[in-house]
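User: Let's play a game. I give you a shape written as tokens, and you guess the letters that built it. Ready? Here's round one.
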């Protein structure tokens, strides 16, 4: 017989969504347990997103886990769109009333959250096996798992599926309940981490005849750079010299700007897709983050959207335990999806504007250049981009 545990909220997945939710619930006096099948080291070392919206920064600060982020993060108040060899700055501070973004790697966010959960006695279990969820439409759903050879069964009030696109929570919902919306893009990103000081104070999004390129960074000494490539590209076919040559070509500027190069620490291929599942809840199971939606990385929204999901869920759970009201829980999916689809729209728009598509004709090319010209010459268009990039206002 399994060892029985009782908890208010069970959380599957120790990524940003799961750990932010767990700590928010702790601050509301609600008990939770987080189950993660990977090791803590693996979770904290994965190379993932690094752009935090203003709302994400504010929330982490309010949660008491933002001290190191404030100290080490790079605050930016704009990005550059570069096309035809010329750069055009989008001024976030001026267009959004002082808002910006912070460059701080997801791995660092997870380290801060894990340290906070440990310091407050939080239950975060890594390297658990055979996780499964059961009786989701009952008043007491259950999670089962094995840890160090012992079988456990957790009786919960609610379960949060924060276990990503390939997790077990979404597939545990009965067939016919969910509707999936999916789009695969006909290209990918070849990304590198390089031991080189960033060549720009802010991110550069470049549109070029040979394809998209992005100059980003992780610290004052580490650059993060990408080039558009085939979705099934073999990374072994790209030498470091080839990657730098392609970056120099696509990021070239008529004003004599130079790309700073250095040793490549890591490189890999990232696929591009848009995905949404509706609804984001079934019974007392609530999906959050990549288990419910994926966005192409062009708009830097994946982590931020996951954090907003659990911010909404934590508020709903707090109201339930404080007042016995399920109204916010019952409307969780509708509340989240309204924002999810706006973020999908923005991410699709940025992706479509900046990438070269196979089989496009000269009309398509000129239309994209006209779009970029309009966005960088119209205050209204630039403000729309800025508002979406720094993060839309929360709609409770």
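Assistant: Ready! My guess for every position:
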């Amino acid at each position: 017989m399994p060892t029985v545990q009782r908890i208010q909220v069970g959380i599957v997945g120790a990524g940003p969504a799961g750990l932010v939710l767990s700590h928010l619930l702790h601050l509301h006096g609600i008990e939770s347990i987080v189950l993660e099948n990977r090791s803590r080291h693996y979770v904290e070392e994965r190379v993932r997103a690094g752009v935090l919206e203003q709302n994400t920064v504010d929330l982490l600060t309010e949660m008491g886990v933002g001290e190191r982020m404030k100290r080490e993060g790079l605050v930016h108040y704009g990005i550059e769109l570069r096309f035809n060899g010329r750069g055009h700055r989008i001024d976030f501070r001026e267009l959004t009333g002082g808002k910006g973004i912070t460059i701080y790697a997801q791995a660092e966010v997870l380290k801060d959250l894990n340290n906070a959960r440990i310091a407050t006695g939080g239950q975060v279990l890594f390297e658990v096996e055979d996780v499964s969820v059961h009786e989701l439409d009952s008043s007491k759903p259950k999670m089962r798992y094995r840890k160090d050879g012992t079988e456990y069964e957790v009786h919960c009030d609610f379960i949060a599926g924060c276990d990503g696109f390939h997790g077990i929570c979404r597939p545990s919902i009965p067939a016919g309940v969910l509707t999936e919306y999916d789009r695969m893009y006909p290209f990918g990103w070849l990304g590198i981490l390089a031991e080189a000081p960033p060549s720009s104070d802010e991110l550069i999004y470049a549109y070029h005849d040979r394809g998209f390129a992005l100059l980003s960074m992780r610290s004052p000494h580490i650059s993060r750079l990408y080039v558009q490539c085939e979705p099934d590209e073999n990374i072994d076919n790209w030498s470091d010299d080839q990657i730098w040559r392609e970056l120099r070509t696509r990021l070239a500027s008529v004003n004599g700007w130079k790309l700073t190069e250095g040793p490549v620490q890591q490189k890999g291929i990232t696929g591009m897709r848009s995905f949404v599942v509706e609804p984001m809840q079934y019974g007392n199971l609530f999906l959050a983050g990549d288990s419910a939606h994926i966005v192409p990385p062009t708009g830097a929204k994946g982590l931020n959207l996951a954090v907003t999901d659990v911010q909404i869920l934590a508020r709903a759970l707090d109201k339930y335990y404080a007042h016995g009201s399920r109204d916010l829980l019952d409307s969780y999916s509708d509340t989240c999806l309204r924002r999810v689809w706006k973020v999908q729209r923005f991410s699709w728009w940025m992706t479509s504007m900046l990438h070269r598509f196979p089989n496009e004709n000269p009309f398509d090319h000129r239309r994209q250049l006209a779009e970029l010209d309009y966005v960088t010459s119209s205050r209204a268009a630039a403000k729309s981009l800025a508002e979406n990039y720094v993060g839309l206002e929360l709609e409770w």
